[in-house]
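Protocol step 4 of 6.
Sequence for MFS transporter (Arthrobacter wenxiniae) entered exactly as in the expression construct, tag removed. Do not edit the line below.
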Amino acid sequence: MPLGLIALAVGGFGIGLTEFVIMGLLPEVAADFQVGEAAAGWFISGYALSVVVGALLVTAAVSRLPRKPVLAGLLVLFIAGNLLCALSPDYALMMAGRIIAALCHGAFFGIGAVVASDMVAPDRKAGAIAVMFTGLTVANVLGVPLGTLLGQQAGWRSTFWAITAIGVIALIGIMVLVPAIAQAESRHGLRAELRAFRSRQVWLSIAVTILAYGGMFGAFTYIAFTLTDGGGFAASTVPWLLILFGVGLFIGNTLGGKAADRNVDSTLLVVIAALALTLAAFALTATSKPMTIVALLLMGGFGFATVPGLQMRVMKFAWAAPTLASGANIGAFNVGNALGAWLGGVVITAGLGYTSPIWAGAGMTVLGLAVMVFAATDSRRQARSTLSPADGQDRAAAPQPSKA
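Step 5 output, structure tokens:
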């Protein structure tokens, strides 16, 4: 395994930690700044919105630049944002720090996915992307609980000091371990990056990302209420159950990347179908503690097993200039998060109970599966129509984008 992938994973760990650890520290942060829960909640919502903006605008702005220096620059931005959070004397500067850190999130993962895939052989690209996203899964499994504990014991600012230090380590790792990207790659300007969106398959892949991943996140957003009010678990057991969910994320990400290297579309079809079935089964058996434990592990596993394949699929069909499309798909994950959480809130407000977000998530995932079936069928049809017997073998080596 190239050591540069480890550096990317460390960066992913830090970014994942700064995104999610705030959830466990909101009471302390709100009390320090003397604001209410709703105002403090914008530290989460504002971050998520800034991720989408950064995934598109920041990635577009740096599309002509060599990727290694760009990744380093993004981590400098990340370090600055978290340093501002650690030092912020008031709510406004804390929000500014969150936004600055978030702007690098989508661009880092989008560009990092392209860099990771360039470090390995063609048949290991999805696995390389999975290694980078391992940092995000480890942040959920270990980083968030430990970061929350540190913040509760030593003050919430200490957690952001620790994240700043992780950012510095990742920056050094990328500067030393990530190989320089060939200068030829920097010739892809914004126009070339935008032309990649003429591919119908790129848009279909982004739609699958929003629906399938958003369905899982919609079910997960209200999981604490589902576990305590629906499943009868004590509130003190919820963190341990969430760690189990995080273990599922780690396993699913690793195995999903390996499977996608063999066949992206087949892997996504199987995994998304399994995720939909898992969510439906979870909704039906949420009052059973043993079944809930199994469902949490499977939901995390199948949910994150989609990530390497979805990212790889977008890059595959935007192969001539994949950077902006890769960043856009990172933004799509966050759009799916917001859509799933909103839909879950709608059904809860309608009085349908705390298992209703799981049903809503299952419905979103089924829609994502339907889009994926159409995308895979359309891709095979397009491949048959564009390959002639004379040049089929040569052209099959490169993915053929379909025109919208």
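Step 6, annotate. The radius of gyration is 21 Å.
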